[in-house]
Write a structure and sequence with these properties.
alpha+beta; 8-stranded mixed sheet; globular; disordered N terminus
Length: 192
């Protein structure tokens, strides 16, 4: 984290991130350093939602679109996400949009809840709260996920066995492992 030599001036953003078009809601409350670029926040969101970082992504901040510099722009003007610092593009009460897997269209609303001084007593990156597991990769976006949940919940559904075979025992749509996610976020933030 960047700060004055004495440690003063560093701040943390508290963000509420909601996966859009999914019912019941899937959301995360996160704390992150204000000085991180959107490229690093992308990795934090991947961990927090359990995504596998296998697909393209982009950020919508006002009328600007940010993405990795190696992504194909498909004719739209993209700005480098690694140069967009959270504190600069998301002041207090800001709202951003993060889309992961442009084919399935997982849109996340990212709301700045607060900006607080960093005391050094808490981990700078943490999952504070949330609800439900994120949908599994490649399930077809919000409509495909709704269909998957219906098939999973109904043993008489013709696709129930196929869905169970695909997901195995590893997916519980109601589960949120805050401790496990925080361990992964700590490893992401402080790689060995």
């Amino acid at each position: 984290m960047q700060a004055a030599a004495d440690g003063s001036g560093a701040t943390l953003h508290e963000l509420n991130v909601t996966l859009l078009d999914v019912t019941p809601p899937v959301w995360r409350r996160l704390r992150v350093p204000s000085v991180i670029p959107l490229s690093v926040l992308h990795h934090v969101l991947q961990v927090a939602f359990g995504w596998e970082d296998r697909h393209l992504h982009e950020w919508q901040v006002g009328d600007r679109t940010y993405a990795p510099t190696d992504e194909d722009s498909w004719g739209e003007e993209l700005h480098d996400e690694s140069t967009a610092i959270l504190a600069e593009v998301a002041p207090a009460d800001s709202v951003l949009r993060y889309e992961y897997d442009l084919g399935d269209g997982w849109e996340h609303l990212v709301e700045v809840v607060s900006i607080q001084p960093y005391t050094g007593r808490e981990p700078p990156v943490a999952l504070l709260d949330g609800a439900r597991a994120a949908p599994p990769e490649d399930c077809g976006g919000p409509a495909g996920y709704e269909h998957l949940l219906d098939a999973l919940a109904d043993a008489d559904d013709p696709e129930h066995d196929e869905v169970v075979a695909w997901l195995g025992d590893r997916f519980d749509p109601e589960a949120l492992d805050v401790v496990g996610i925080n361990h992964r976020l700590e490893a992401l933030w402080r790689p060995s």
